[in-house]
Write a structure and sequence with these properties.
9 strands; nine-stranded antiparallel β-sheet; 1 helix; mainly beta
Length: 107
Amino acid sequence: MTRLVAVLAVAAVVASCSGESGSIIPAGRYSGSTADDRAIVVDAAPDEVRVNQRKARLLEPDTNTDFAVGGGRLEQRWKCRTAAAGRELRCTLRFLGRSETIELMRE
């Protein structure tokens, strides 16, 4: 029984640190660039995300990993996950019918 509890505890810790959707982006500033070399800066806090100083709209109430910037036809949809123990973000950006993966490093 003790072994089962230990295995379940380890599984819970691994799941919480996996960076999957539903987790939280650690607070901080992350920077990188798009494929066409446009600079991207993401400022993350538990309850707010900004992209290049523009406030994002959080799409899920319990996470800051899924967000949108702008609106209408020009809306940018972001879905991010953490990597390298929170030092990196890997985000999928959907904009104007295209999709791009962007890797951002914590400053």
